[in-house]
Automatic annotation (TrEMBL), chains A, B:
Protein name per Swiss-Prot or TrEMBL: Peptidase M20
Family annotation (Pfam families): M20_dimer, Peptidase_M20
Keyword Ribosomal protein: no
Stored PANTHER family: ACETYLORNITHINE DEACETYLASE (PTHR43808), PEPTIDASE M20 (PTHR43808:SF17)
Length: 437, 437
C-alpha cells in the first residue's frame, strides 16, 4: 500500500479543490471560500433547475430503489445487480460505461476542463449488502416507509446517483472536472473493500482520481472524514490432541488460545485516536473427553490511526507467539507441539481526510446550506481506501430517513419533502468539488 | 448417591464372596482360596463340558455379534437393539426376562442357594455405542477380522453373555448364587451410566446385587478394579455483547472463559491418585465485528479418588467465580454484566473395589488359570457406579483381540482358538464368584 506524507496529502486535496481555489488559500480562507462557492451553486438557476428535475422524476428514483433492492447482492455475488445497474448507467447517458475485472460498474460524465481524460471526481455507492443468498429481499411498503434488507445500505444511494445524472442533464449543468459514477462491489465485511481496492490500485482509473465521495446510508448531515482501519485475523491453534484422561499433561491448543485472549485484554489501547480490539468468535474441540487438536478464534482490531493499528497488530502477534511458546513449555510436547496460524481475514486501512480539505469544507457548507447541521464522524467505509492513499475522500448520506441497517427489517422513508432536501446535499457537494461553469 | 465406609465396603465384598469363604478369611487366605477354587472349577468336568459347548456353537456367537452390531444403538437410542437382545435372552431360556424403565434388558439364571430370590451376581454388557444415528454399522469381514463401529465396544460382550448361558445349560452347571444377565443402556459418554444408575438405585434389583461384572471390550487379561470418577461441565458464559468498535470497553464473556482456562491449567493435580482435567470443546460468538454475548466451554475432570475429584471440582467453581468477577471489574458493565452457568453434563462417581475382594482375586486367578497375565487397571466404566456404592465390582474383557474402539474402523478378531481361550476367563470368574455345586 502506498502512503502519502502529510504535505503530499495536502497537495492532493488542493489539487482536488483546484476548480475552486488557488494553492495559496489557508484553512480559514478555504472554508470561507467553500461556503461562498456552495451558496453560489445552491442559489444559482442551474441548481434550481436540477432540483426541479429531482422532484419531477422522484417516482422514478423510488422505482429504481425498489428494482435494485429486489435483486439480491450478497458479498461476492453482486453480479446480477451490477449488470442491472450497468444498464441503468447506460440509460442515463453516461459514457465509457463498463464493468471492471473486480465487478464494479461505472460510467463517466465528462467535464469542460478535462473532457473525459481525468483526473476524475468519483461518486460511488456500493452494490453489495450484508445479506446471504436466499434472503427475502421483496420490498414492503407502508405509507412512505419501504422495508427490505439492504434498501438503505446502500441501495437507495445507487438510485440517487442516477437521479443526479438526470438532474444535471435536465439542468444543463456542465462541471469543470470529469465525474465518474460508480456502483462498486465488496464494501461490506467479507468483501473487505475489494471493489475500491481494485478501482484505486489496479483498474484503469488508478492514479487518476482526485477526490472520492462514497454515498453510503441515508443521513444527509453526516460527513465521515476519518476512516477507522481494521485488521481481522482468524487464528487457528493446533496441537496433537489426545484422550482427556490418558493423555493428560500433553499441550492443549485451548490453553494457548485462552492465554492469547487474556493477554490481549490486558493491553490498554489509546482512547484517542480510538483503538479497539475484540476476541469475537471461537470454536473447536471434538468431544468433552478429548484434548482438542484444533481451536480457532477470530479477532478484530480497529483504529482511527494507521500507526496505532500497526502497533496493536505487532503487539498481538507477540502475544500469540508468547502464548504458544508458554504452552509448549508448560506441558508435554512428546506427541507434538502447539502451533498457530494467523490468517488475515480482513484488512481495511486507517486514514483520514484533512478537515480543511475542500471535499470536507464544501460538503459541510452544502449540509449547512440545505438546513442541516454537519456531523463529522469516524467510520469504516469505502472511503478508507482512498484516505489511506492520501486521496481526499469522505462518505456522505443519500438523504432521507432510514434505520435498522444490517437487520432484516431494514427500512427507509421516502417521504418526498424531507428526502428531496437531503438528496440536494450530495449534489451540491459534488458540484462544489467538481466545479461548475 | 450413597457412600459406604471402608468397613462396610469390606463387609459387602465378603458377602459377595459368601459362596466361597467364611467371613474370617484374611486377604492372603482369600487369594489362595480363590486360586484353588478357580483351578477346581476350570479343571472340573462341568467347565470342560461348557467349553466344549462354547466351541460347538461358536459360529452362532459370531453370528450374534454381527446381528447385534448391525442394529444401531446410539446413546439414548438403544431401544431397537435392546428389544432384539431381549428376545435373545428369552431364547437362551433365562427367566424373568424384561426391559426396565430405563431401557436395560435382563434375565435371571437362578442358583441353587437363593433360587431366584437374590442376592444376584450380575454380569452386564452395554448396548450403546458412541456412534450417532446414520453411522454405517454394516460389518465388514476380512479373514477372521470383523470391522464395524461398536463391534468390540461393546457388542461382542453381549453375544458372549448369551454363549455363557448356553454353555452352562449344556454342561448342566448349577451355580449357588442367582445370576442376572444384563444388556444395559447408557455406558458411553453422554449416557452418563444411566443404565447401571437405574439398575442399582431405582430398579427392582436395587439393594439385591452382591457382585457386579461389567464385560466391556475384548482384552481377557484386564481387571478394571478402580473406577476413575469424572465430572463434566458445559459452562456458558454470557454477556451483553455489542459492536466490536462502538461498544469497545464493555465486558466480554470470551475473556472470562479464557481466564478460566488459564487458571485451571495453572492447577497441579496429584499424579497419584491420578487426577486430570481438560478444557475440551468451545464455541460461541456471532461475527468477527461483534463482542460475543455467549461462549460455551466443555470441561472434563477425572480422578481415581472421589476426594480429589471433589477438591478439583471445588477449585474449578472458584476459578469460574473469580474469572467472571475479574471481567466484570476490568471492563464496563453498563449494558450488562458477564455471568456463567455451569451445567453438569456428566458425573461418574470415583471408586474402587478392594484388591483383596473375591471378585478381584477370583478373576485374577481365572485369568492366570487360562494362561494370561492379570493386568489391574483404572478406568471409567459401568463398574464405577457399584464401586461408589461399595458393591464389589470389576470390568473384564470378552476375550479375543480388538482395537480402534470409538473409531469408525473399530475391529475385532474372531480367530477361534485365541478367542475361545479368552472367553473362558469371564465364565470361570463368574462361576467362582457365583459358586458352583
Amino acid at each position: 500500500m502506498r502512503r502519502l506524507s502529510r504535505s503530499m496529502l495536502f497537495a492532493a486535496s488542493l489539487f482536488a479543490a483546484g476548480a475552486l481555489y488557488g494553492p495559496e488559500a489557508d484553512a480559514a480562507e478555504r472554508s470561507d471560500t467553500s461556503v461562498k462557492a456552495v451558496q453560489k451553486i445552491v442559489g444559482g438557476p442551474g441548481f434550481k433547475a436540477a432540483v426541479k428535475q429531482l422532484d419531477a422524476d422522484y417516482d422514478r428514483t423510488v422505482a429504481d430503489i425498489v428494482t435494485l433492492t429486489e435483486i439480491p447482492a450478497p458479498p461476492f455475488k453482486e453480479e446480477q445487480r451490477a449488470k442491472a445497474y450497468l444498464e441503468m448507467l447506460k440509460a442515463v447517458g453516461l459514457s465509457d460505461v463498463e464493468m471492471d475485472a473486480e465487478g464494479n460498474v461505472m460510467g463517466v460524465r465528462a467535464g469542460t476542463a478535462t473532457k473525459g481524460k481525468g483526473p476524475f471526481v468519483v461518486i460511488a455507492a456500493h452494490l453489495d449488502t450484508v445479506f446471504p443468498e436466499g434472503t427475502d429481499v421483496k420490498v414492503k411498503r407502508e405509507g412512505t416507509k419501504l422495508s427490505a434488507p439492504g434498501i438503505g445500505d446502500d441501495t437507495r444511494s445507487l438510485a440517487v446517483l442516477l437521479a443526479y445524472v438526470r438532474a444535471m442533464d435536465a439542468a444543463k449543468i456542465r462541471t469543470k472536472a470529469d465525474i465518474l459514477f460508480v456502483g462498486n462491489v465488496g464494501e461490506e465485511g467479507p468483501g473487505d473493500l475489494r471493489g475500491v481496492k481494485h478501482l484505486f490500485n489496479q483498474g484503469k482509473y488508478k492514479g487518476r482520481i482526485s477526490a472520492f465521495f462514497s454515498m453510503d446510508g441515508s443521513d444527509p448531515s453526516r460527513i465521515v472524514d476519518r476512516g477507522v482501519g481494521s485488521k481481522r485475523y482468524r487464528v487457528t491453534f493446533k496441537g496433537p490432541g489426545g484422550h482427556s484422561y490418558g493423555a493428560f499433561g500433553v499441550v492443549n491448543p485451548m490453553t494457548a488460545m485462552a492465554q492469547s485472549v487474556v493477554d490481549l485484554y490486558a493491553v490498554k489501547p489509546p482512547a484517542d485516536p480510538k483503538t479497539t480490539f475484540s476476541a469475537s468468535v471461537v470454536g473447536g474441540g471434538t468431544s468433552v473427553n478429548s484434548i482438542p487438536n484444533q481451536i480457532f478464534l477470530e479477532f478484530d482490531m480497529r483504529s482511527e490511526s494507521a500507526a496505532e493499528l500497526a502497533k496493536l497488530d505487532q503487539t498481538f502477534i507477540g502475544i500469540l507467539d508468547k502464548a504458544v511458546a508458554g504452552e509448549n513449555a508448560a506441558r508435554s510436547t512428546k506427541p507434538g507441539v502447539v502451533s498457530y496460524d494467523a490468517k488475515v481475514i480482513g484488512e481495511r486501512p486507517a486514514g483520514g481526510t484533512d478537515p480543511n480539505a475542500t471535499i470536507v469544507t464544501a460538503t459541510a457548507a452544502a449540509i449547512s446550506a440545505l438546513g442541516f447541521k454537519p456531523e463529522h464522524e469516524a467510520s469504516s467505509t469505502d472511503a478508507n481506501l482512498p484516505m489511506s492513499l492520501g486521496i481526499p475522500a469522505i462518505t456522505i448520506g443519500a438523504g432521507g430517513k432510514g434505520g435498522r441497517a444490517h437487520a432484516l427489517d431494514e427500512w427507509i422513508d421516502v417521504e418526498k419533502g424531507e428526502t428531496l432536501k437531503g438528496m440536494q446535499v450530495g449534489l451540491a457537494a459534488l458540484l462544489a468539488v467538481a466545479g461548475v461553469e
